[in-house]
Design brief:
single chain; 429 residues; Naphthalene 1,2-dioxygenase Alpha Subunit, Chain A, domain 1; 7-stranded antiparallel beta sheet; 5-stranded antiparallel beta sheet; 22% strand; iron; membrane; oxidoreductase; Rieske_2Fe-2S
Length: 429
């Protein structure tokens, strides 16, 4: 005891004790100041008060009505679907010149078609006369696409080739009334992307190209794939909920199990895989709405897309591709099993979404990227003083077109006045 008392009273022990007290006080004070921060999930900005009474404003993490608001959906149309590169299809889905596929992306009707030059092009799916639909089926083949309203017809390059009762009308120029073309990008692996921004071509993101290259390398995708089956389903949930990464491993695991059961590899395939020491199992998420999957025991890959139709309805499109000319005797059984699996997954998402709370939010990188893009676009609109509509198209034709249009009405051009669509040959999006 005497030894301990003597030690406690030495100058060095006093200094150590004081330093210890100061350190513990600093740690406690830092923890308390951090605990004062409060964050709101939605509605207005939250404020953070630190120990020096400084006030820092923080933007809300998500807009109010994240899962159900029409206002949020319209913002997503402007900020994301009007100016992001969107994966739509693979070149294998266009077997010959004139093959087309129609889409409705967040209210933007568009279609892809293969030209006689084998190039895949994208167009707004509206006639330049009255904005009526050009392609009425989801898929088809035709080298001349016509609007049934007034018979305007276009070739696979979007050029207007026929405009009944407009020929010879002063001020009308066919070359100025072709379909509105959309920026496209086809990767080396045949994946077709579009960008609806009507301005200057936005470069294809290096990060997306790298993600696709990694997936293609792991899945052993060459320059060609064979389309096997596909379907578009509709679900009653918000597209962002479907894209939540919590479903990513669920989808992959369930599909992997089905493929393994229906497409057991041969002894030769197993031996080659052992020699190469290469697994073909891979998955990739492509912003903002796509997943790609390939499988360990089958020469297949699948694209899965969540396509927003409204704030509460989502179209789910899946397409299945083979990596070789043949996939075995179980191909029909496999495609049927995949179809049932996708339907089951869709039902699961609908069930989960029916119980989601307004303030709930997943912490995926996809959600962070969506938020960044929405907030960035809102800042641009605030600076502009009005909404910015990147996909909006206006005709570049002669001002005399309106005179030609009036002449067409005067001679009763198939009753155009009584059944008109938009009433304009532009697209006010």
């Amino acid at each position: 005891m005497e030894f301990l008392s003597a030690y406690l009273l030495t100058p060095s022990s006093v200094i150590v004790a004081l330093l210890t007290v100061l350190f513990l006080t600093h740690q406690s004070w830092t923890h308390l100041s951090r605990s004062k921060k409060s964050y709101q999930i939605s509605g207005g900005s939250s404020k953070v008060d630190d120990t020096y009474n400084l006030v820092v404003s923080k933007e809300p993490d998500v807009p109010e009505g994240w899962w159900s608001s029409r206002e949020v959906f319209e913002l997503e149309r402007r900020a994301i679907f009007s100016k992001s590169w969107l994966y739509l299809a693979h070149v294998a889905q266009f077997c010959k010149a004139g093959a087309y596929q129609s889409f409705d992306i967040a209210g933007f009707p568009i279609f892809l078609t293969r030209g006689k030059d084998d190039k895949i092009r994208a167009f707004h799916n509206v006639c330049r006369h009255r904005a009526y639909t050009i392609t009425r089926k989801e898929t088809g083949i035709s080298t001349v696409l016509g609007c049934r309203y007034h018979g305007w017809s276009y070739d696979t390059t979007g050029r207007l080739v026929k405009a009944p009762q407009f020929d010879g009308i002063p001020g009308f120029d066919k070359s100025e009334n072709g379909l509105f073309e959309i920026h496209t990008h086809t990767t080396d692996h045949g994946m077709v992307f579009v960008n609806l921004d009507s301005g200057e071509l936005i470069p294809f993101p290096n990060s997306t190209a790298s993600d696709i290259d990694r997936f293609a390398s792991a899945a052993r995708l060459g320059s060609k794939s064979r389309w096997l089956a596909g379907q578009t389903l509709t679900g009653t949930f918000n597209w962002k909920f479907g894209m939540s990464l919590q479903y990513h491993p669920v989808v992959a695991d369930q599909l992997e199990e089905i493929v393994s059961a229906a497409a057991s590899p041969s002894v030769a395939t197993k031996f080659l895989k052992f020699i190469r020491q290469h697994s073909s199992k891979a998955k990739s998420h492509i912003f903002p709405r796509n997943f790609f999957y390939s499988f360990e025991d089958g020469h297949f890959w699948i694209s899965l897309s969540f396509i927003p139709a409204s704030e509460s309805t989502t179209q789910v499109r899946y397409d299945m591709f083979g990596l070789s000319s043949t996939t075995g005797n179980n191909e029909g059984e496999l495609t049927n099993s995949i179809a049932e699996a996708i339907k089951n997954i869709l039902q699961k998402i609908e069930t989960e979404f029916s119980s989601v709370t307004p303030g709930s939010l997943d912490s995926s990188s996809n959600t962070s990227q969506i938020l960044d893009q929405l907030q960035g676009h809102l800042r641009l609109e605030k600076k502009n003083g009005s909404q910015i509509l990147p996909a909006m198209r206006q005709p570049k034709g002669s001002s005399l077109f309106q005179q030609a249009e009036q002449l067409c009405k005067d001679i009763d051009c198939a009753g155009s006045g009584s059944r008109s669509g938009s009433g304009s040959n532009g697209l006010d999006w």
